[in-house]
Design goal:
The complex is a heterodimer of chains A (253) and B (255).
Chain A lengths: L7 E8 L8 E8 L4 E5 L6 H8 L7 E6 L10 E4 L11 H12 L3 H14 L15 H13 L5 E5 L7 H18 L2 E6 L2 H7 L2 E5 L6 E6 L14 H18 L1
Parallel strand pairs in A: 3-7, 3-8, 5-6, 6-7
Antiparallel strand pairs in A: 1-2, 1-4, 8-9
Chain B lengths: L1 H26 L11 H10 L1 H35 L1 H16 L2 H12 L3 H25 L3 H9 L4 H39 L2 H11 L3 H30 L4 H4 L3
Helix pairs in contact in B: 2-10, 3-4, 3-6, 3-8, 3-9, 3-10, 4-6, 5-6, 5-8, 6-8, 8-9, 8-10, 9-10
Classes of the chains: A alpha/beta (253), B mainly alpha (255).
């Protein structure tokens, strides 16, 4: 289980579009296996684009991204959670969660066993035969999370996954995600524009700037590893969010 | 209760009121019965020419059924081919529009020359007229699969076949069903036009009755043809409901 998570190596990545827009102008960082990284920055700074490139869903215009370079293709299990749940509405909850395993060709027994386990982890085991249309926004997001976990990923990428949810649900899902990560030793990259979410969840925070198209700050999160509701009441927590807020403001000024 | 009345009661009341006014208008000679027969005369024809009309309706139903099924299979298949290869799309899509714009009345005599009198020419006519909406709506459906879901399938390295079966086709279903409704109506029209020249079925009866000045019989035959179309479209509605009720707003009745 040592070195379970994948490393991520981003070197001199540039992304520019035909329209002339060029959100990323040379971004480099390296992330050790098993870390929880939060990527924040003002809207338009290219954080979602960067995440998609780490997932190999988009190609950088120049530069290079290496994910788990010491691993074989088969050992790289990357999962991605979108801004919305993006479930297949014609499939029941259980069949949505089994989808990744189905694509990989796992047997029905194995698929359903693992899917039920994943649904248990997100607390939705009683809803396996519901259609997504009958679930609340928070529940759909949990199903989406279960789908991403079903393949036991060693790199989990999340793109503002809880941004559309109400605050109570969001705080709860933040907590769940942190716990899921702590249990699994996977590497996580979490894109958000919420400062307190980044502070609560991460080990490390990278702040991108829209103006320079580069990394503006790279901060180690000083909070204790064990995060609970009380963490948000710590003075370190408010110091960190205050500090992040000031830096964020500077970026937008 | 109120909904039931609106859905069943209102159309029935409207039907009886209009039929009664029509009957009256012809009876008191506001309208010449050679131009528009009384509803009761149409009913008489439906009863007196029952055997002839029903056997013709059976033949028409068979032709419509075959052309509809051919349009569904060929239309969806063609759309998948067009979608799968950009080369095929650019090379052939403009020509599929031919099916949409072809003046079937001009082509139908040719169909009789090619296929002879009878059902094959009729089926060909029904197919030509009804295949385009299936191609166009399926293609639109395939192209509107959600980009995020496409990314999801790419992330898990799904094969093209897996993506087609598990993502593109299911997400096109609402579009396909809509195309089938249009296809069903057109298949009836195309088949009947074909029958004018093919010499069988309801279309042939309309043609002959018109020549004999039996306008009541023309109306009786037209009525049966519309009922056939109605039945087909209601059948498609039912299939659409069964396939989509659990997940698509168009059939689940949720806002």
């Amino acid at each position: 289980m040592i070195d379970f998570g994948l490393s991520v190596q981003v070197s001199q990545v540039v992304k520019s579009y035909d329209s002339g827009l060029s959100p990323l102008k040379g971004v480099s960082f390296s992330l050790e296996p098993g870390k929880f990284l939060a990527l924040i920055g003002p809207s338009g700074c290219g954080k979602t684009t960067l995440l998609k490139m780490i997932a190999h869903l988009r190609e950088p215009s120049s530069g290079e991204i290496k994910v788990g370079k010491e691993k074989t293709d088969k050992e790289r299990r990357v999962a991605y959670v979108f801004q919305d749940a993006y479930l297949l509405p014609w499939r029941k909850v259980l069949e949505n969660v089994t989808l990744p395993l189905e694509i990989l060709g796992a047997s029905k027994v194995e698929r359903e066993l693992k899917a039920r386990k994943a649904l248990e982890r997100v607390g939705l085991i009683d809803f396996e035969s519901y259609y997504p249309a009958n679930l609340s926004g928070g529940m759909k997001m949990r199903v989406s999370l279960a789908r991403s976990l079903v393949n036991n990923p060693n790199l989990l990428l999340l793109d503002e996954p809880f941004a559309a949810l109400d605050e109570v649900t969001r705080l709860r899902l933040d907590q769940d995600l942190r716990n899921l990560w702590a249990e699994s030793q996977m590497t996580v990259v979490f894109v958000t524009h919420s400062i307190s979410e980044a502070a609560f969840l991460s080990d490390r925070i990278i702040m991108l700037s829209t103006k320079t198209g580069k990394i503006q700050h790279d901060i180690i999160n000083p909070l204790p590893k064990n995060r609970t509701l009380e963490t948000r009441a710590l003075s370190e927590f408010s110091q960190l969010t205050q500090d992040l807020f000031l830096r964020f403001q500077e970026l937008e000024a | 209760m109120k909904v039931k009345f609106q859905k069943l009661g209102l159309p029935l009341i409207a039907f009886f009121v209009i039929t009664a006014l029509w009957e009256l208008a012809v009876k008191v000679k506001w309208i010449n019965p050679f131009i528009l027969p009384e509803p009761s005369q149409i009913l008489d024809s439906l009863i007196n020419d029952k055997a002839e009309l029903w056997s013709a309706l059976g033949i028409t139903a068979l032709s419509v059924g075959i052309s509809f099924l051919m349009s569904v299979v060929v239309g969806i298949g063609a759309a998948i081919l067009l979608f799968t290869s950009e080369t095929v799309l650019f090379a052939f899509y403009p020509y599929t529009i031919f099916f949409q714009t072809v003046p079937i009345i001009a082509i139908a005599p040719l169909l009789v020359i090619w296929f002879g009198y009878g059902i094959p020419a009729v089926v060909a006519s029904g197919f030509i007229v009804s295949v385009f909406p299936v191609i166009a709506s399926t293609l639109t459906g395939l192209m509107s699969a959600d980009p995020a879901l496409r990314d999801l399938f790419r992330l898990y390295r799904a094969t093209r076949l897996q993506a087609m079966v598990k993502l593109y086709l299911p997400s096109s279903l609402p579009f396909i069903m809509n195309g089938l409704r249009i296809c069903g109506g057109l298949a009836v029209i195309g088949a009947i036009v074909g029958e004018f020249l093919g010499g069988v079925g309801i279309g042939s009866i309309i043609d002959v009755a018109r020549a004999q000045q039996r306008i009541d019989k023309v109306f009786a035959a037209v009525l049966l043809a519309s009922l056939l179309g109605l039945l087909l479209i209601k059948g498609i509605d039912l299939v659409s409901f069964l396939l989509l009720r659990n997940w698509h707003p168009s059939e689940s009745g949720e806002e």
